[in-house]
Design goal:
Length: about 625
């Protein structure tokens, strides 16, 4: 197989000169990662490489992975030219170090994972679900039970995940870079025990970089087109490697997408996908080609710096970046790239970004600036201390405090006794004579609004592209995009269904039915709360008592029985867990057993039978 260079240069180590830093983790481990990796990314890497208890070095680990895979490729005769093998190894190492690709733990170790303790979410086979079961499962999901509702093939955890956001440059998809990356990792999976799947992540971020909203028609078309391109590149690579594959996978979806009048925004991607498929006939002999799948990311999300949902839009328009002296707020790269893609000029973009992240200084702030502070008696040293603290703060009340102004100032200018000066909650700004409106105006000037809402120089439709909170509530559009992507690829697509605490049960049931109609393989439910819901915590306790490698059944009756136990008192739940353990080691759930209702959740009225279209 021939591999072309994209990121690397012949004769030069792709990681030479890469600035590294050592990160100390809370558990005492140390890890060497590139300078631009966050603490969360470093922690995620250690989770992926859980078998190494000493100090980790990403550069050394990437070298070892490339050497091992290259040796396997040589033994299997996958690459005949040593030059191509060197290119392949260099490209893999570069993509890992730059977080373009994330590999699973079994690829780092070279061994399959040992059986794991049963964990959430609970898998439910939805093929034979009854109307009353659907109602009760919707209730359980609404009250915090993490469920994996399977409509078709079981979800697949990818061994390699590509971040689509890394393939958007200057407002367009870097088509050839994406094709090369798929070829590199298809070969890697083919030689690594001949199994595994490629996953996609960062779809919402990629659309934002293109200036498109994930809930818009154009956004859904572009998401489907990117998936179609990756699928076509995978099939072409499989054909070149002599792997078995179905050439018809996604072909009908691609043809339908190309015929749509609203697909002009993705014409180049669709044309390239069609060209890659030209002449492919498929084959049934030989090792099976790695599939393309989309599934919740798990630990890979920490390394990529994204959420677990591959379809989700960016959750914030500004991010904290680590610096040698602390942290500072900057606009999310996706926001900057998206504004450029929308055609805004440099000056307007700068003004829009100031609206989002603020000016970072009280100089020229409305209501509270350096001049008004001096008028209140503050000197240059005090003002400098305030300015130095702004990057780490979120509110001026946490910055202008007795500690920074000094006890003497508080006593002489504000009449505060020295013994009452300690602490932060002194409301010094109010004592200095500033009104709540002045404080709020200065806060927004310094720390920004956090979004483009209300910004001048951008219309509402363009600003809505980056409005993640609004997009997160549009579950129907999210599921529609997942469905369009599912039609482009052979592998299963699993979507996440984040539920707010106030979501009605009926809306949960509608979302489940919409996911089934969209052709998704599965839907994973979760509750968006700071604390784990009690029902989820009790389920974890029950599953933790099961033997390693043993999982409960996936029929609705079996799952509802576990949910019923989790809704009861803790002693009763533990008794049920012990009984379940014994039964799973001996007999399955007896046929015909009717599980009781979920304790703590009202039994609903018996719903009418669902229509066939659901």
């Amino acid at each position: 197989m021939q591999i072309e260079r994209g990121y690397t240069t012949a004769g030069r180590d792709p990681l030479a000169g890469l600035a590294m830093r050592r990160v100390e983790l809370s558990d005492g481990r140390r890890v060497q990662v590139p300078q631009d990796w966050t603490q969360r990314a470093a922690q995620g890497l250690c989770v992926q490489m859980t078998g190494d208890d000493g100090a980790l070095d990403l550069r050394r680990a990437a070298d070892q992975l490339a050497v091992r895979l290259r040796a396997r490729a040589d033994a299997q005769g996958r690459i005949s030219d040593p030059a191509d093998a060197a290119i392949w190894a260099d490209e893999m190492r570069y993509m890992i170090a730059r977080r373009i690709a994330v590999v699973a733990p079994e690829m780092w170790s070279g061994h399959a994972r040992s059986p794991q303790t049963a964990s959430l979410p609970l898998a439910v086979e939805m093929a034979a679900v009854l109307p009353q079961d659907m109602s009760r499962l919707s209730q359980a999901a609404r009250y915090g039970a993490p469920l994996e509702l399977r409509f078709g093939a079981a979800p697949v955890t990818p061994r390699v995940v590509l971040d689509l956001g890394r393939f958007v440059e200057d407002g367009t998809v870097a088509i050839e870079a994406l094709v090369r990356a798929v070829r590199v990792w298809t070969l890697a999976l083919a030689v690594d025990a001949g199994q595994g799947a490629i996953g996609l992540a960062g779809m919402g971020g990629a659309l934002m970089r293109l200036g498109l909203g994930p809930t818009t028609r154009e956004g859904r078309v572009m998401a489907a087109a990117m998936a179609a391109l990756v699928e076509a590149a995978r099939l072409a690579a499989a054909d070149e490697l002599g792997l078995s594959f179905d050439a018809a996978a996604g072909a009908a979806g691609l043809a339908q997408l190309r015929a749509r009048p609203d697909a002009s925004c993705a014409a180049l991607l669709l044309s390239r996908a069609s060209a890659l498929r030209e002449g492919l006939v498929g084959r049934s002999d030989g090792p099976r080609a790695p599939r393309l799948v989309i599934a919740p990311l798990g630990d890979a999300a920490a390394i990529l710096g994204t959420g677990a949902d591959p379809f989700a839009p960016l959750t914030t328009q500004m991010i904290d970046t680590e610096t040698p002296t602390g942290h500072r707020r900057v606009a999310a790269p996706e926001l900057v790239a998206g504004l450029v893609a929308q055609g805004h000029g440099p000056d307007r973009i700068a003004a829009l970004l100031r609206h989002v992240v603020g000016h970072g200084s009280l100089a020229a702030a409305p209501g509270i600036d350096h001049a008004t502070l001096r008028a209140c008696g503050l000197d240059a040293t005090q003002i400098a201390r305030i300015e130095a603290a702004l990057p780490e703060a979120r509110d001026l009340r946490a910055v202008i405090t007795p500690w920074r102004l000094g006890r003497a100032f508080c006593a002489d200018h504000l009449g505060l006794a020295p013994e009452k000066v300690s602490g932060h909650g002194m409301e010094l700004l109010e004592r200095l004579g500033f009104s709540p409106a002045q404080i709020e105006g200065a806060n927004r000037h310094v720390f920004g609004h956090g979004s483009l809402r209300g910004a001048r120089g951008i219309d509402a439709a363009q600003a809505a592209v980056f409005d993640a909170p609004a997009q997160e509530t549009d579950l129907r559009a999210r599921l529609a995009m997942a469905g369009e992507v599912s039609a482009m690829i052979e592998g299963p697509v699993t979507a996440l269904l984040p539920l707010g605490e106030a979501v009605p049960v009926a809306r949960v049931a509608r979302a489940i039915r919409a996911a089934r109609r969209a052709g998704l393989a599965a839907l994973v439910t979760s509750i968006d709360t700071a604390d784990s819901p009690p029902l989820a915590a009790r389920l974890r306790e029950i599953l933790a008592m099961l033997p390693s490698g043993i999982r409960p059944g996936t029929t609705p009756a079996e799952v509802l029985e576990i949910l019923d136990a989790a809704g009861r008192s803790r002693p009763e739940a533990r008794r049920h867990a012990r009984a379940l353990r014994e039964r799973l080691l001996s007999d399955p759930l007896p046929q015909g057993r009717t599980p009781r209702r979920i304790a703590g959740i009202a039994e609903p009225e018996r719903p009418q039978p669902q229509s066939g279209r659901d």
